[in-house]
């Protein structure tokens, strides 16, 4: 007679938990924009242990992703009101112990289950509305094809304020598309402590490395791109306004999350 | 110095209108379930001028569609927060002047612009949340492929109540997939009159025939299917609970709407 | 054996209709901002038959309202997922046949039923997310009281873009609060015709006068106010950027809508 | 040069964090239903350290709350798109070290910030759509008054499925209204560990006592009530289907959260 599940709320049957025990399976369509921000903006979001990458101090990548999710055998994708969600991810380049990595300062999803799995992994997810143009297999004035000249848009909003928007125009297949996993992701996993009024050391404060298993990718395409960020009282994305947009990419990928590597415990980061 | 646009709100520049002047371009991914309901349920929703099809008195088709839309040159699909929407359509078979047609008693969308364009065409759209499983080009536990055994789900909810759900399991390519346009669509275009307390003859009450131009379809797949409807105080979809589910289909299509044929004016239908 | 209801979708039992037969009962909490816009912006939205009010050529009023609705005996307010909605209304001053009136160029609601009842009455409603600060009977840092210094905010967003925001700081009870009904409302009731490609004369094009019956109002408060509009590709609200903000008001009201007066038929307005 | 804020995402200015440093101020309108569930359902959700209350083994209270929130000096209530949220809370009675307490197995909110503050305090929040009838100061067919016969509804839905609904009919002022704080709240604060595949001991697993400071309450009303729960694949609320509904209550309250008491660390609860 015990509680079941992996995250809150634990429950008698374990069906209520926001996150079940991994593995967690994902299939997503990605619109990706690589760009350069002010190196000071990148530096300002790095947790202790990460330092600016001197070879690419302003290097950033933004992702607009339409995901489908299923637990092991759970087939949540068949109930797409539960199994689908959309995500905006910002990754910034850094070095960890001299190795090129990236870290995620800001990330938005439109589903609570994805937010919970994110927190558990060290992705600092907030709620946002993310939309991405879908590719289409037929020519139409209402949709792009994955072909030269195909144009795809992405946008992010939260609480009725637009926070980011991007457009990518495909030019050609991409030999080396930028994707999730191009650089190792080192995130800050963090969970605060309220006892004592919020000023005590956090309960969880550690650098972690994301482990993507079974990642597969379709052939990717690349092209020119544009991305803009907008100010909001409760977000700081606009500090990453591009000083130069590098390249846009589009592809699909699958991956499985079943584990996480703790790199080091931190004392605090504030 | 005049107002611009096609629907309310007309505005100085015409940008504010929910619907602009056609043509309206659409590209959609369709999950389709053909089924038989109680013939009495079908008969009960037919407007004057339509009669039950004696060869298929309970014949119905439900669609779960993920659409992208653009006006002529408007490229709304590049701002997918505006250019995308999802739709549930119920079509029931009937005869019009002895010809096999179908008509739409109930239809739900998640975007005001689609609702407005619908009303104008005689589609009696309400707001609903519609989700459909997306196909995926790679094998994954989180998504189906368009291949034998690929399973796709669809659901409809309104105001936090689930109204419909379906699952289709693909078996093989389909020689004659059921789609939008398989039968001519004859709808009741209706706009009431409030002056006099709502009991006067409606301002608009006519049978119209939908005109889809430039419709193209990808190769379709078919397989077994299931669909269920649920009761709600402000919907009557559950009168169409299937007595037999026939077949499920999945394909993509493009179409353009630029015109409408008025078949006949009706006096009233109440 | 006929169809029931008042608006689409007509249905066998009439429960599915977006709008039932009136009377329609409303109870709302209103945050109101009276302001002056560029007179050219006001003039540009007036339909034929209305002309600028020379005594107040830029006069506008914006409303942020939290409504509860019920049909006659329907008690929809007991199922607040259906019976509540929020609304932003812009009214601009004008003359009709020499009499001071106002008209509504833009209005947004967050519920399909309210949008349908609006169209039927000549309110050109679109979907928008509207939020208004609620008054509170106890002192709190989290809520204002209806008392001197009480501050209330309102906002409007659509498709993830903020379109309007306002703040009102109460100073004192108001002898003559601006409200719905302060000036007669003359709206353009309009429903287009698609047959022929959208260029034919509209099916419905008439000036109508709103009839509020049984309106009651609580004691109102007034104070200083601010309001701002923001640009968006599919809205023209920002043409009404205030040149001067006059006054803010806050009160509650009830009303019943059961009829509409058609003032005159127009040929077209485009 | 460090990161600011209290929860993820920590950021250079601290504005991006879902939760800022407390104190957190709340003002809410509460609809409350006290009822008895199957004692086995209550027992099944108690974490180690809590045991059934032999004097009230099936005692439960459900809350539907419309909250306004502000941080210290943040005035978020003036931007109600950010500062308002709605919440459904289920509390079940129990004993902790022989003292009567209650604990929260399930709770739903419609805002990410509230979800984050909840997790941090040991409230196992998920996303849900919660609606509650608002009281109105004038008689109307569209709204209840706080007076004998006034009826108020509440509902909860998640992912387009209705999970709970309630109606309370007021009879008279209440001498001892059931509210938040009537019993001390002892919750399980829990944050899992993914490293090692999710089977390791959680990072945070402790019993905590909620500390409400500065709680004030308006005069409350009480009356007859009804409440129902509905099944869903990812929720277990329907295990609490009432065997007897006791009483409904309605009142408003303010409170401040600034601290939390850790009662004991647990090893694990699964």
Strand order of the largest sheet of chain A: 1-3-4-5-10-11-13
- Count of DSSP-assigned helices of chain A: 3
What is the CA-based Rg of chain A, rounded?
19 Å
Helix content of chain A: under 10%
Termini separation of chain A comes to 41 Å
Indicate the overall shape of chain A: globular
CATH level-four homologous superfamily name of chain A: Acetoacetate decarboxylase-like
Order of helices and strands of chain A: EHEEHEEHEEEEEEEE
CATH-defined fold name of chain A: Acetoacetate decarboxylase-like
Major beta sheet of chain A, specifics? 7 strands, mixed, barrel
The number of strands of chain A is 13
Strand content of chain A: over 45%
Kindly state the mean pLDDT of chain A as a whole number?
97
CATH architecture of chain A: Beta Barrel
Look at the helices and sheets of chain A and give the structural class: mainly beta
Low-pLDDT parts of chain A are: none
Q: Tell me which protein chains meet in the greatest interface and how many residues each side has.
A: A-D, 67 and 67 residues
Which CATH C-level class of chain A is it?
Mainly Beta
**Count of discrete domains of chain A:** 1
Query: Oligomeric form of this entry?
Result: homotetramer
